[in-house]
Amino acid sequence: MAAVQGPIVIKQLAPAIGAIIEGVDLAKPMDQETQDQITEALLTYKVIFFQKQDMTPQQHRDFAKRFGELHIHPFYPNVDDAPEIIILDTHAKNIPDNDNWHTDVTCIKTPPMGSILMARMLPPCGGDTSWSCNITAYNALSAPLQKLLDGLTAFHDFRKSFPVERYGNEEKWAEAVKNTPPTVHPVVRVHPVTGKKGLFVNSGFTTRIVELTKGESDLLLEYLFAHSGRPEFTVRWRWSVGDVAFWDNRLTQHYALADYMPHRRIMNRATVLGDVPKGPLS
Ligand SMILES: O=C(O)CCC(=O)C(=O)O
Ligand SMILES: [Fe+2]
Question: Where in the sequence is the signal peptide annotated (predicted)?
């Protein structure tokens, strides 16, 4: 059954992050007021969930396009006549994917502002996804550590999440590496809309803090990666087919649990490009 179009109802899920949005059918044409309410909810709750949705990949793309230009992933398989929609199908490679804390595609100069993920096929149980709030994680650090981090930058490298041995096709991989050289972002990001500060390092892509020695960088990153995933900064979503999660990728991370093998799980994702991350000093 398709979702009903009506007044929006918001149900907060956890103190740090996450809310369910009721009363919107994402497949239907949307007025500006509804879109603005969705944007507002995204900024407030960082990840928002829509249930019982019935979108084709084309409608998924069209909804996502309302929020900005879409990213076409160099690697993931995509829908034939909607290349902006990537297909995450664990069965295709028979290995789990995205089962680490990460922020999407921070290895490019303009990492996504948001990702919109829809569940298409699910295992009988398991396969939940968690999101964490990098603003709450930053606020929980001591003032001296916040001050140190405010002035640092870090490398983000495509190869950390996409090593050649995992994604095969050496030629295509070399081309993607050439087109995606490591990029440097501030370790603390100022959210371009809310002005809030949050950690902007993630275990998916961040390899090295530029201004520190390798030993210092390794230890500090290890601490920050572990800190960011603390349960009190998170929300965990148990999927049903037709659920859609829309997250503000600018100051969040997420983790797709791979606890359901050998069952199949298929998700579709649209990825909305963002701006160049700015730090407190940049
Ligand atoms: O499959 C999931 O639940 C999330 C996968 C993921 O990391 C993503 O779509 O960006
Ligand atoms: Fe992801």
Answer: none
